[in-house]
Amino acid sequence: MKQLLLLAILIISFSSFQAQEKETIEVGTIVNLEKPSGPDFNYIHFPKPNFIIKQGGIVNYNREFNQPVEIIAIKTKKDGTRQVRLKRTDGRKFFQSHRSIVANIDKAIKAGEISL
Fold first, then answer.
1. Percentage of the chain with pLDDT > 90?
2. pTM, whole model, 2 decimals?
């Protein structure tokens, strides 16, 4: 009985912790883009290299690491995932061609691509 009660308390506290994490992300929050563990970003949707080049940009992902970015819009999809639109805080464009990018915020934080 005590083990069941302890398990219930742990589940409730864990779910409340997740709810608090989701609530702290709002429009105007500053986050950092981190270097991904793999070769590519999986949850931050950068434009394809050919679109960057067509708009006169430079394809260099290394310049985008450790950059503070601001959340300018949050959109919740039907399946419950949250997409955010990000812009650089220094006023410059991503790759010198795109003003903003889109990211799946919850999965990007879990994967370490974005840090709060």
1. 30
2. 0.71
